[in-house]
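TICKET: design request
STATUS: open
ATTACHED STRUCTURE:
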């Protein structure tokens, strides 16, 4: 089997010669050829060169061409904040002060949509016969949040009709973009919507079922496969997501893949994931990465499984770790032998935890994967910043990104289970649910 055949056979629920491996390389691809994130996000030839290096070095069965959830938002008027080692993030929200519904539908030749499509057209004849090409687009809810900002979470309670209208608009935008991707040569449209993990199943049913069902029907009618990609602790929304009928689903390390797969198998949905990005891929060694993959495979029922990182790979992941993962996926017995007696050593926490019982002011701690790269983390931190900013009383606010070994160790010391989360005076208050400003202010006032 070619890698592409392996992916498509898995999506059909049929047995394959070995498990498929799909690395979500994103701007990390630029690292392999010496380009920074900005260059590989804005220049077609750099993007193509980086994707070809991923294909040669990591031997993927499928791979994305570009992994950037801000492409559509930028075209629709959001200003972006750029970084050399991560995708851009949304800086401004055009609908923050208005409830108008835009009418603009982006065209295929606008902004970095054109960059993405041109790269696909160049890559298709080079690797498209043997590798399944994934076209990443922003999901309707996250796109609506990019346009509206954190106010959308209050809107869901106070202005539901407005939210329905805004989601209808953002879905029409993504339907158009998905058609452009498919016409350019994409095999699988990955609808990436991190903020789905931040809402309840009730809100999913009320607001998200129709837009996502409509979108996946549209992709299917255009002749492509689909993937519902969600970051964060989406555990409670796995079944609602399945009911929108995507061909596949991808989740990160916040979700038990074993538990999720028991649900997706019932619905005939292929699941992918969920190798930890930082604690294993970024800071681990080759044995750590092989062991995680072997243990993951051994814990799961066979069939309808794609092994992938939990989300877009950090820029600085050592290339040898991704190579080790590919070996463990494609040569599992060999890897199992290599790590049979291996135990990972955890880095000890060497800092000092706050004296939560004797603080001078309320302390709000936001634990994130990385607020500059994870949309759910971005909006969790923004909610906390807005709440603290409008309070008359002094409140201390700090973010701990899961991108350093000591912050990973701090999470273990405090007992943080899911990201993103908000703790107030050392007590968990919000886990993978973005609070409204009023909800968070109320929690802070309780400790004043």
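STATUS: resolved
RESOLUTION: sequence designed for all positions
ATTACHED SEQUENCE:
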């Amino acid at each position: 089997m070619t890698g592409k055949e392996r992916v498509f056979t898995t999506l059909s629920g049929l047995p394959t010669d070995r498990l498929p491996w799909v690395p979500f390389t994103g701007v990390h691809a630029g690292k392999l050829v010496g380009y920074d994130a900005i260059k590989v996000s804005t220049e077609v030839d750099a993007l193509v060169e980086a994707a070809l290096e991923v294909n040669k070095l990591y031997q993927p069965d499928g791979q994305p061409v570009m992994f950037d959830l801000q492409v559509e938002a930028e075209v629709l008027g959001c200003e972006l904040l750029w970084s050399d080692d991560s995708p851009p993030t949304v800086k401004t929200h055009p609908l923050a002060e208005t409830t108008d519904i835009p009418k603009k539908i982006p065209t295929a030749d606008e902004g970095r949509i054109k960059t993405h499509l041109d790269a696909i057209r160049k890559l298709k004849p080079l690797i498209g016969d043997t590798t399944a090409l994934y076209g990443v687009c922003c999901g309707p809810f996250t796109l609506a949040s990019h346009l509206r900002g954190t106010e959308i979470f209050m809107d869901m309670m106070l202005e539901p009709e407005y939210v329905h209208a805004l989601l209808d608009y953002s879905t029409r935008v993504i339907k158009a973009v998905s058609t452009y991707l498919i016409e350019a040569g994409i095999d699988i449209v990955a609808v990436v919507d991190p903020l789905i993990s931040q809402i309840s199943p009730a809100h999913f049913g009320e607001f998200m079922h129709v837009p996502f069902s409509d979108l996946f029907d549209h992709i299917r009618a255009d002749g492509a496969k689909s993937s519902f990609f969600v970051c964060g602790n989406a555990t409670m929304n796995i079944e609602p997501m399945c009911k929108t009928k995507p061909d596949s689903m991808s989740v990160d390390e916040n979700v038990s893949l074993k538990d999720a797969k028991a649900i997706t198998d019932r619905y005939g949905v292929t699941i992918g994931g969920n190798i930890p990005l930082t604690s294993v891929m970024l800071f681990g060694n080759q044995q750590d990465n092989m062991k995680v993959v072997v243990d993951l495979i051994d814990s799961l029922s066979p069939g309808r499984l794609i092994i992938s990182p939990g989300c877009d790979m950090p820029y600085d992941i050592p290339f040898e770790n991704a190579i080790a993962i590919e070996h463990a996926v494609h040569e599992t017995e060999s890897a199992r032998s290599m790590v049979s007696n291996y135990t990972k050593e955890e880095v000890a926490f060497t800092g000092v935890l706050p004296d939560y019982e004797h603080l001078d002011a309320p302390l709000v701690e936001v634990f994130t994967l990385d607020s500059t790269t994870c949309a759910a983390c971005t909006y969790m931190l923004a909610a906390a910043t807005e709440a603290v900013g409008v309070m008359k009383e002094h409140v201390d606010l700090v973010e701990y990104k899961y991108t350093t070994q000591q912050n990973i160790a701090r999470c273990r010391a405090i007992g943080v289970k899911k990201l993103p989360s908000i703790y107030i005076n050392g007590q968990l208050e919000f886990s993978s649910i973005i609070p409204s400003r009023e909800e968070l202010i109320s929690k802070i006032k309780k400790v004043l």
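CLOSING REMARK: The first strand starts at residue 62 and ends at 64. Residues 160-184 form the longest helix (25 residues).
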